[in-house]
Amino acid sequence: MDPKEVEIPGNSDPNQPGGRISHLALDIGGSLIKMVYFSTNYDVDDEVGRSGKKSLGVSSGNRDHPVLKGRLHFVKFQTSKINDCLEFIKTKQLHLGGYQHLEAPPIDKIIIKATGGGAHKYADLFKEKLGISLDKEDEMNCLVGGVNFLLKAVHQEAFTYMDGQKEFVQIDHNDLYPYLLVNIGSGVSMLKVDGDGKFERVSGTNVGGGTFWGLGRLLTNCKSFDELLELSHRGNNRVIDMLVGDIYGGMDYSKVGLSSTAIASSFGKAISDNKELEDYRPEDLARSLLRMISNNIGQISYLNALRFGLKRIFFGGFFIQGHTYAMDTISVAVHFWSKGEAKAMFSRHEGFLGALGAFRSYDKHGPDDSLVHQSMRPFPFTSFLAGDKICSPPNGELNETESVDCSVYAS
Ligand SMILES: Nc1ncnc2c1ncn2[C@@H]1O[C@H](COP(=O)(O)OP(=O)(O)OP(=O)(O)O)[C@@H](O)[C@H]1O
Ligand SMILES: CC(C)(CO)[C@@H](O)C(=O)NCCC(=O)O
What angle do CA 99, 101, 107 make, to 5 degrees? Predict the structure, then answer.
């Protein structure tokens, strides 16, 4: 997949005079690289100052008046195409932070925040190709930092999804913890979150997004993830899955609460159909696979929520991104197994949790003694990251490469 150009609208183009990119952060996972960066080229308070009405420094904005306006950009690449990612960073000079204007930026001293296994695996490659060092942040820490930030800072971030209905959930900041975070990436991590930076990875499963894409590719010969997804939307899992009704002669097994349409055995019909792989339609195979994996994750999530008495489960990771059928299946599984007690919730920027966490981490480190701080901290980011406000479009769904307008408020 080639990355689409991120549209940086006119006045925030870093290549324009005064244009500025800051806070580039990366999450390099087993399947995908996620990138988040902030761009701006004007400072609201400077403008006010120039107009003569009010003269405030960047650090003296207040809750009603944004210090900075700009755009938060979200981009993803396949990890297998990491060279495209490096080229993208280089072309857009994203790694130069506040040094784009210098003729000879001190590249070898620049440090970028990065998380995920790839921050370790590809550190040498970044040094070799771009001359920059990756400052490695713990993956789980970043996931939790990212989701807490979104839930607190972004209006209408969390929602439930059932029977095709999306409903936004009002998050009470004083009643957010504890919750279970289930991150569905290539593999799946489950974390009990008790507060900012307070969490434990309580479980995980190797049957995750990578399993869906890997097995799906082998079963259907799909060439892209999006193609597999598209197929699964059109398929009928009942052609391959063995249902309770198939075993019970069309009847429910009501004594134990199993309806005739419940799946008794994923892919179970394939044992008796006397068919070969090519006799099944790829769309039906894709649909069965998606249900099998989503159901399984929903069930393990519920069991972990039960283990710790948690009522709310937030799902993240790129497996979910814009994936309505997966959300529906996971929600039904959680609802079914918890008898309606636990709630599955999703987040609008779920694929970028780790990258956002890494992005936030620019703020948490001590006194400036390296160029990471000088180049990447052109304004007091704490205010922004403390969870005051991000203004994003009400229907701000994000896909492959997107950006949202946002305002930075001082705390
Ligand atoms: N365009 C895409 N290309 C590949 N996979 C995609 C795409 N869109 C969604 N996915 C799904 O998202 C999964 C990767 O999710 P994510 O980026 O959150 O994990 P990761 O960070 O790569 O993995 P891990 O955290 O396990 O290292 C893939 O395995 C696949 O199921
Ligand atoms: C190994 C990680 C943490 C890498 O992101 C992820 O892929 C994962 O949580 N896999 C599941 C491993 C397990 O708990 O079985």
Answer: 35
